[in-house]
Amino acid sequence: MRREELYLADILEAADAIGNFLQGVTKAEFLASRLLKNYFPKPLILLVLAP
């Protein structure tokens, strides 16, 4: 059970970090930014693919 709790904690931490960084960024700004669109999905994808 502990492993699952750590996995969930990692997911929540990654989502929180992304939310904090993107605070104040509008949808239009996000969609116009190649950097934001390419970088921010990666931490969540890596967590989903992790064993």
Structure description:
This protein has one domain. The chain is 82% helix and 0% strand. It has 4 helices and no strands. Helix 1 (2-22) runs antiparallel to helix 4 (41-49). The longest helix is centred in the first third of the chain and has 21 residues, at 2-22.
What is the secondary structure topology, with strand pairs?
Blueprint: H1 2-22, H2 27-32, H3 34-39, H4 41-49
Tell me the major beta sheet: none
Supply Rg. Answer: 13 Å
Termini distance?
14 Å
Low-confidence stretches: none
Average pLDDT level: 82
Kindly name the structural category.
mainly alpha
Number of strands: 0
Number of domains: 1
Short descriptors:
single chain; 51 residues; mainly alpha; 4 helices; 82% helix
Summarize the structure.
With 51 residues, this protein is mainly alpha-helical. The chain contains four helices and no strands.
